[in-house]
Amino acid sequence: MSISGKQLSEKESWRDVVKIVKQLDPKKLEIVKATLPVVKEHGEAITKRFYKRMFANHPELKNIFNMTHQITGHQPKALADAVYGAAANIEDMSQIMPVLERIGEKHRSLQIKPEHYPIVGENLLGAIKEVLGDAATDDIMDAWADAYEVISDVFIRMENEMYKTTEAQPGGWAGFKDFVVDRKIPESDVITSFYLKPKDGTKLAEFTPGQYITVKMEIPDQEYTALRQYSLSDRPGLDYFRISVRREDPRQEGLPPGIVSTYLHNHINEGDIIPVSAPAGDFYLDRDSKLPLVLISGGVGLTPLMSMLNTVIEEEPQKEIYWIHAAVSSKYHAFKKHVNDLAANHKNLKPYIIYEKPTEEDIESKLYDKEGYITLDVLKEALPSKDNDFYFCGPTPFMKAVNRALNQWEIPKERIHYEFFGSFGDLDE
């Protein structure tokens, strides 16, 4: 099991790691606090400038970062939010452990190492100076330089522990390991599953349902290596990892198609080799909860929830499960037969399907429960009670709709769990 799947007592030890880092000088701390509003106001401008500087000075780092997220602006916003959040809690960063853990898991999956942090620091501080201009005095820049050193020390210490734990576990490994595509199976018109087995035939590392792996792709005609995270879509304990990948066609004018997803769909076949990093991620089931489980997904967001579903069906066959899935139509609906077969054999599983634009065949065959979009009324129709644990994943607009509905229903925060694909986001509107 990866470090993110360990018990709370072990997570508490991370808080100790966070607390033993060197403290910021009180005078510099006051300067950082005083300038936080300005940095937050100009956060995205600073981080956009940061990426331009860093990639100009160190183009090799394009082998790590998702360049599509640079085009969409997702990555600069995510970094701005992370920098501001860390600086705002710099006196005791253990207060934002869920955020630190999420970023640390992402870094570990991408193989971010201590030597990368000085590069980031140099270019981030340079970007702050460029954006703020004369307002960024020597005292301010000196204070922020020390603040960055404290923040980076936290991440380096925490990620070092993650690396050691991941490598030391049974079946664990460092860096990227070659896997063979054992099977390639279409799941819908746009989603295909890839069954991956270690090339060296060794035992697979355990993982927690909901986690992801990073695949490393060398794509012809692409100058840089591409790294992408894909959720593991089947349960642990099997002799393969399964990822189920949506072919990402351009969603708006000016955006390129998904470089990795289209390459996987069109060019990767059974027998091909894909380098993979060990499972990572902080989105996972609370296995101690006795409440009914509600899994809500939109589109390819069903992949981490599929791992959870298959695991609970196998290990807790009496647990009450509600599977709520939204898709455009049956053509885009992956794992439809699998879930229906499970429900036929496990009366504790109750599927509920929402199609945005059902086809004529869907309408005639009554292959779904609701037409339209997910709302609180839909949840109330699908669920006999609100006393459940809720896990959801999907496109950001879908997730905002689900989060809004759960908040309207006054579901306690501790029973709401979700996963963002790609860069981190904010569901609050």
From TrEMBL:
Segments forming domain FAD-binding FR-type:
174-286
Q: What is its EC number?
A: 1.14.12.17
Residues the record annotates as the site (Influences the redox potential of the prosthetic heme and FAD groups) are: K106, E419
> What detail does the entry give on cofactor binding?
Binds 1 heme b (iron(II)-protoporphyrin IX) group per subunit. Binds 1 FAD per subunit.
Q: What is the enzyme's main class? A: oxidoreductase
Q: Where is this site: Involved in heme-bound ligand stabilization and O-O bond activation?
A: Y51
Q: Where is the active site?
A: Y117 (charge relay system), E159 (charge relay system)
Cofactor(s) named in the record: heme b; FAD
Question: Which positions fall inside the Globin domain?
Answer: 23-160
Q: Which family does it belong to?
A: In the C-terminal section; belongs to the flavoprotein pyridine nucleotide cytochrome reductase family.
Domain description from the entry?
Answer: Consists of two distinct domains; an N-terminal heme-containing oxygen-binding domain and a C-terminal reductase domain with binding sites for FAD and NAD(P)H.
According to UniProt, the name of this protein is Flavohemoprotein
State the organism named in the record: Neobacillus kokaensis
